[in-house]
Amino acid sequence: MQKQIFVLADLHVGSAYGLLPPDFMDTEGNVHSQNLGQQYLWDRFIDTLNRIQSRPISIIVLNGDLLDGSQKKADKQPLTLHRLQDQREAAVKVLEEVRSRFPKVEWKFVSGTPYHELAEEMSQVSYCLLGAKQDVSRTQHLRVGEAILTFHHELTFSSALLKGNTLERAIVDNLLASTEQGWPQADALIRSHCHYFRYLGRKNKIALVTPCWQLQTDYVTKRSPDANIPDLGAVVLTVDDSLKQDGICPVGFTEYLHKHPAPIVKDMTSAGGENDAVIQSAGLATV
Q1: Quick one: DSSP state of residue 152?
Q2: Are 170 and 189 in contact (CB under 8 A)?
Q3: DSSP designation for 246
Q4: Domains of the chain
């Protein structure tokens, strides 16, 4: 059996650094225009959907952190939309762009970190989007023929250069759960949360961290502006369970990635001080 699965994660709708539909009107009638960073994200989000649209996608997995949440620790400072109701309604508009291109696919929902969203909030979004209550879980174990894929949002974040180590640990944890507890052994472990794209493969198993749709925030730059630069984009998984009979991993993937906008470089070479012209590799500031 063959299927293609479109995986989206870490949209962080509501964040000043996350996805926001154009000219969104909140519950009080205020219109929120995209800042430059959100416009950059939106254009590449739509570009990604258009590129993937021709593929025979049969399942979409939303793998957590659809919403940015209330940001209690930051006193709501990083938010464009402060009310959860507004975040939910904006998220529906974002996902309607996906649904319009894939109207007949099956959706699966994985809740993200409780700091950002609760399963009930994602359930409300899914109901407004699809018109029926959906199963929203912290983990989704999906079977495609003889292939098993496990989707879970969180993975231990690594700021080290060898980010694949946490994926190796996830593979070993899954093997131990299978041998010691009889839990299903996954052919593919799909994680998100880290905002970087990485993958690690053995001959019969892969582990993968999906890219995100949130730009670099003040939180992730506190150690260094050059570290922890997010990988923007999405992933399509290709499942062919017939490969298992040859001991080969039945899950492959195609990544759709976009570069993060570069910082502004101000020209200070003129005698009068700062030149009015600035060099912007991406043509924009984040916010």
Answers
A1: E
A2: yes
A3: G
A4: 2-262 (3.60.21.10)
